[in-house]
Amino acid sequence: MRIGEVARETGVSVRALRYYEEQDLLPSERSAGGQRRYPASAVDRVRLIQQLFAAGLPSRSVREVLPCVYSGTVTPGLLDHLEAERARISERITDLLAARDRLDTVIANTRNPPAECLHPRD
């Protein structure tokens, strides 16, 4: 696949794909004309990279995790790191849910204000 095809399939910019390649996250080969060529598996790999970035992992951690995803083996140190990242993500989810619940309350009170919030009209 060419870089533009991977970008279209994943919704990731060509610039981001080049960055992934520079960070050793996404391997490519060069054609005789010097164009990047990616295997069909690059689409799934880019989606995984996006998920790991969205979870807050830095590129260094993503670089460590990717081989483990595909081989199914993880070093004890990396496993500790992944468990810590998972705990951090779970905490963020809890915080986001609490923020959403608070917004739901504000929205509900705005649409149907409690009697004590109603101001009498003159």
UniProtKB/TrEMBL annotation:
Residues 1-68 form the HTH merR-type domain. Keywords: DNA-binding. PROSITE patterns: HTH_MERR_1 (PS00552), HTH_MERR_2 (PS50937). Gene3D superfamilies: 1.10.1660.10. The keyword DNA-binding applies. InterPro entries: DNA-bd_dom_put_sf, MerR-type_HTH_dom, MerR_fam. It comes from the Bacteria. Pfam families: MerR_1. This is MerR family transcriptional regulator.
